[in-house]
Write a structure and sequence with these properties.
Elements (H helix, E strand, L loop, with lengths): L6 E2 L2 E2 L6 E5 L2 E8 L3 E9 L3 E9 L3 H14 L2 E5 L6 E10 L7 E10 L6 E7 L5 E7 L5 E3 L6 H7 L4 H7 L14 E3 L2
Antiparallel strand pairs: 1-2, 1-7, 3-6, 4-5, 6-9, 7-8, 8-9, 10-11, 12-13
């Protein structure tokens, strides 16, 4: 089975990197409670991190690495199309040369961090007229939020915005305990 080449923004790898690792993490907040107790709050997943290593070999290897470095210098997020994993909007966060670069051989490592900016994203592949896949992204507008201030409760927030506690909890799946919100926390409104 031949895999499609990895792509990021307008850069297409001439051959796929030889190693990949992917990391998932969950953020947990620990809150001190009087008399030596504590409670834990699940703040949800943090960004997914994709790391890998590859090499360019043969004539023009260093020039190929410079093309990849130019994409890195461009900054901002872009679509990362991996040959096996799902397509994601990601930031290119690290690029390293693992040895002295030679004109015909460059070993490198890279890191991408998946982006989630509060938007609901739907990524799909649509065939174009040439029969190859084109990646499109449908992004909906961000939802309105309320920033928690001293004295706020979810019940008060729901009352203020003409909704119910149940509706607030439905659009805020990271709030596991409706009695525990903190100042500065963003609460998505239905």
């Amino acid at each position: 089975m031949e895999l499609q080449p990895m792509r990021y923004k307008d850069y297409i790898w001439p051959h796929n990197p030889h190693t990949y690792t992917i990391s998932f993490q969950r953020q947990i907040a620990e809150h001190k409670v009087p008399f030596g107790r504590y409670c834990m709050q699940d703040l949800g997943q943090s960004c997914r991190i994709l790391r890998g290593e590859g090499e360019f070999a043969g004539e023009g290897a260093y020039d190929e690495f410079k093309k990849l470095a130019t994409v890195f210098y461009g900054g901002g997020p872009g679509l990362l199309v991996h040959p096996v994993w799902q397509i994601s909007n990601a930031y290119f966060t690290a690029l390293s040369v693992r040895q002295e670069p030679l004109p015909d051989y460059v070993a490198y490592s890279f890191e991408f961090r998946e982006s989630f900016d509060g938007y609901s994203e739907a990524l799909e592949r649509l065939p174009d007229s040439g029969g190859t896949a084109t990646v499109t992204s449908a992004v909906s507008a961000p939802r309105e939020t309320h920033t928690v201030v001293q004295g706020d409760t979810l019940w008060r927030i729901a009352l203020r915005y003409g909704t119910t506690l149940e509706e607030l909890l439905a659009v805020n799946p990271t709030i596991k305990n409706p009695n525990l919100i903190v100042v500065g926390q963003e609460v998505v409104l239905p």
